[in-house]
Amino acid sequence: MIDVIGVYREGVRHFLRNPSIAVPFAVANFIVSGLLYAVSELGFKPEAKAGVVGVSALVFGVSIALSGIAQGVGVRMGVEIAESGRSSLARGVRVLERQALHLVLASAAVSVTVLLGLALFIIPGIIAGFLLMFTVTALVIEELPAVRAMKRSYDVVIEHMGDAILYGLILVILNLVAGIVSRAFQGVEVLYFLVPPVVDALAMGVITLAGVLFFLEAKRSAQASAEG
């Protein structure tokens, strides 16, 4: 069994010592927020309405790519933090030298799979998101291509189903708390543009560290079983 509570507790402890892990997520969030704001402004112009759908699709594609890249950098930093207690944004960005394309493809594949599942009465999408939640983690740690990383995530979740459910529930709770905090600034125009991307990035920093620790523990457990 994996000590999921301990994993999150350790993730918080590591995050407090290495808050820079939130930076890639914050950068991605601010870029996407800026693009969404531009699209919303474009929609108010009658002469531009014909192009809003195309621009929206472009923004969606960019957000998927940025999400994969941010997660990849975060996971790379998380691995170093788990091993040595420290990392830096510069070292995390090195993951893009060899795995940038795979990160984008993995993010796109997972997003499309989840969206198709959501279109099929929602529940299949939730299940898909749950089974594939360690895709980027597996991709970075084991240097796998996108499809094999998705399969690896599936295997880890199935092998540790009870622990994975608890991990996923805590993940949802953290995201809900981040959403509630962000909504507190909804009526303040400037702060509502600035605060939610930061709050979401902080939550993602903790979640990413916990995910790395969970995955590494699952690997150790599998190796111990194989050797035993």
Mean pLDDT level: 90
Structural class comes to: mainly alpha
As residue ranges, the low-confidence spans are none
Q: Strand percentage, roughly? A: under 5%
Choose one word for the global shape.
globular
Give the termini separation: 16 Å
Short note summarizing the structure:
This protein is mainly α and 228 residues long. It has helices at 4-17, 23-43, 49-84, 89-93, 96-119, 123-131, 135-142, 146-159, 161-183, 189-227.
Please give a structural write-up:
This protein has ten helices and no strands. With 228 residues, it is mainly α. The longest helix has 39 residues. The protein is 85% helix and 0% strand.
Features:
globular, 228 residues
Task: Please describe the topology of this protein.
Layout: H1 4-17, H2 23-43, H3 49-84, H4 89-93, H5 96-119, H6 123-131, H7 135-142, H8 146-159, H9 161-183, H10 189-227
Helix pairs in contact: 1-10, 2-3, 2-10, 3-5, 3-7, 3-10, 5-6, 5-7, 5-8, 7-8, 8-9, 9-10
